[in-house]
Amino acid sequence: MTHVSSPALLEVSSLAKAFGGNRVLQDVHLAIGRGEIVGLLGPNGSGKSTLLNTITGFEAIDAGSVRYAGQEIGRLAAHRIVGQGVARTFQLPSMPQKMSVIEVAMAAASAHHGFWETLLRGRAARRAEQAARDKATRLLDEFLLTHVRDLPASALSGGQKKLLGIVCALMGDPQLLMLDEPTAGVHPNLRNDIVQALLRLNRQGMTLVIVEHDMHFIREVCSRCIVLDRGHIVASCAPQELSSNERVLQAYLGGGTSQQDQATEVTP
Ligand SMILES: Nc1ncnc2c1ncn2[C@@H]1O[C@H](COP(=O)(O)OP(=O)(O)OP(=O)(O)O)[C@@H](O)[C@H]1O
């Protein structure tokens, strides 16, 4: 397994999560170092999204610990974890019907900075709103959404919704950004923009954990991969080592036909 220089930014120990009798995550241990871009891989249903959900507080953990920057966050509510500097995006972002793109981005700022600020009246509140508008404007420009900023967010294409999801996550200036399949279903032109944007964020110091099936993306972007199989971590290695890792091959080839289909995605 690849060594992470200590202290790790994120450290997960003995994490377990079940839904009823379905033990989705079992005894998961992982460490993410500052400045890494880590790909989280595994066949469909292996527990990748659940791992993101438990780390970010969207699902309660059953057992184990999640430490971020030396602090235990494993039982904090999602909004508190965001407040600590951990943001995430969703596989299928859903957008409110009646809010424009820029309003959605600005609302994410108040979600990140606490609602008291937005309840305040007067100059402080106006300053906070203007700061959120300026930041949303800059990020929408960076993620090529300026031309749709006044449209209803629900009218965006799937790819544009993913970009807006990233913008919302960035409104709180996270140190750790966790992305759930950021390029799935995205047009190749937009995909390349997302790749460049993620690499740029990493150059600026952000640590990234990315759930992805697309091996071209993994090779282009990630410095390390962690592979889940049926709720267990079975490998942590460089992207170019995946195709010769027995346990990775077994994870993808060990199941039925549908898993063999997925193996084409992991074979370089
Ligand atoms: N809220 C939930 N309630 C019940 N079962 C759930 C819930 N969330 C996930 N699961 C189950 O947990 C298992 C793992 O799902 P998860 O979405 O984490 O896998 P994944 O590796 O992200 O899959 P994919 O690559 O298809 O997105 C599946 O069997 C799924 O049905």
From TrEMBL:
GO terms for molecular function: ATP binding. SUPFAM superfamilies: P-loop containing nucleoside triphosphate hydrolases. The lineage of its organism: Bacteria, Pseudomonadati, Pseudomonadota, Betaproteobacteria, Burkholderiales. Residues 10-255 form the ABC transporter domain. The keyword Transport applies. This is Branched-chain amino acid transport system ATP-binding protein. Keywords: ATP-binding, Cell membrane, Membrane, Nucleotide-binding, Transport. Gene3D superfamilies: P-loop containing nucleotide triphosphate hydrolases (3.40.50.300). Coiled coil: none annotated.
